[in-house]
Write a structure and sequence with these properties.
0% strand, 113 residues
Length: 113
């Protein structure tokens, strides 16, 4: 399970830092956003989770139940948003790719549990 948490931490770190570093390129791929502050807020929240996952996977012997729960709820929540809203035509279909990654993470977490 540590490798799944490590992957999740790395994936979340990269995807969270991208709009913080270069919002314009992020919006070219994902579509224009009306509220930049909201993009930054979500990015910082995902970045926070990524740091917990990276610490847990690299610096601890085992993954605690609390980290597992956080990882599972993050992947479930982001996966739902990344699949439901593109299929309804509300956000770009590119988010479906993130949905697939989140499903991969969920399956890895469940297999390791």
């Amino acid at each position: 399970m540590k490798y799944v948490i490590l992957f999740q931490g790395l994936y979340y770190f990269v995807t969270a830092v991208w709009p913080l570093v270069h919002l314009r390129s992020f919006e070219k791929v994902t579509g224009n956003k009306k509220e930049d502050w909201l993009v930054y807020t979500v990015s910082l929240m995902i970045l926070s989770s990524s740091l917990v996952f990276l610490y847990a996977s690299l610096m601890t012997e085992t993954i605690s139940n609390e980290v597992f729960i956080l990882a599972f709820i993050n992947a479930l929540s982001l996966g739902f948003i990344s699949i439901y809203y593109p299929l309804r035509g509300i956000i770009r279909k590119v988010y479906l790719g993130d949905g697939v990654v989140e499903l991969f993470i969920l399956s890895g977490l469940l297999m390791g549990y």
